[in-house]
Amino acid sequence: QVQLVESGGELVQAGGSLRLSCTASVRTFSTYSMGWFRQAPGKEREFVAALNWSGGNTRYADSVKGRFTISRDNAKNTVYLQMNSLKPEDTAVYYCAADPRPYTTTINPSYWGQGTQVTVSS
Predict the structure, then answer these.
(1) 3-state helix, strand, coil in the chain (%, to 5)
(2) I need a surface site. Which of 3, 42, 48, 70 has the fewest CB within 10 A?
(3) CB-side exposure of 75: number of CA atoms within 13 Å?
(4) pLDDT at 71
(5) pLDDT tier at 1 (50, 70, 90 boundaries)?
(6) Helices marked H in 23-119
(7) pLDDT tens for each residue of 48-100
(8) CB 39 within 8 A of CB 93
(9) What are phi and psi of 7, to 5 degrees?
(10) List of residues 6+ apart from 28 with CB closer than 8 A
């Protein structure tokens, strides 16, 4: 069982930056591919970014390319999402996700966090 706990979501003005963190309670964190998804009110959950076990391979949704950066620190069991140049349309609950396949960036999550709210005001 893997527990994922996100933090870092808050209210920010358009053009601002935030860094989300997700810490996993599992000894084998480095064997998981990790990702971030988001869900805006009235919309389906959508993929944002993912990376493989080492962080050497990453993948992003077109809507966040060039603005968001996913990274991980396996020594801290933590994955990050650095979000720059935020837009009101980035407003959503952001979820961390874990896939036990270590080499993929097309993750199919087996575990989800509880989510953290990001609100971008115009």
Answers:
(1) 5, 50, 45
(2) 42
(3) 0
(4) 98
(5) confident
(6) none
(7) 999 999 999 999 999 999 999 999 999 999 999 999 999 999 999 999 999 99
(8) yes
(9) -155, 165
(10) none
Q: Determine the residue type at 3.
A: Q
Tokens for 85, please give them.
């140049």
Q: Which two tokens stand for residue 20?
A: 């989300």
Task: Quote the tokens at residue 103.
Answer: 């080499």
Residue 10 identity? E
Token pair listed for 38: 């988001």
User: Residue 36 corresponds to which amino acid?
Assistant: W
Structure tokens at 5: 């706990």
Element at 99 (helix H, strand E): strand 92-99
